[in-house]
Amino acid sequence: MERTSQSSNIDLPGPVVLYDGECGLCHRSVQFLLKRDRGQLWYAPLQGETAQRLREQYREIPTTLESVVLVDHNHAYLRTKAFFHVSKYLPAPWRWAYHLRWLPAFLLDLGYRVIARIRYRVWGKYDACRLPTTDERAHLLP
Known about the structure:
Helix content: 25-40%
Largest sheet: 4 strands, mixed
Distance between the termini: 26 Å
Strand content: 5-15%
Shape: globular
Order of helices and strands: EHEHEEHHH
Structural class: alpha+beta
């Protein structure tokens, strides 16, 4: 299931992007978003305590690390749907991708799954991340 509605049990500061904290591609993606989201998004690694707490409320959030997740307005969006919903927080032209959210996820996720399988080989794996700036740190959750 790509999207679910839940009652709000966890007090989130705003929309939260969950990502693989060791993945080079995910790291670059978070850096890209931090530069463009105008301070509207929050970020937490799938390996962290924020993701652990959110999994209790949103059972569809995977325990494996192959999916990016957006938790927004009591919904959890996975894989390509997460990217499309994240894009509404970005300036144009990136925001225009939000209109693609109606495309069928099962087709788009085929390509997503291929990239997820090869991401460590192509973009590497981080043992440690670069130190975030003060502004960036304000939007990073444990």
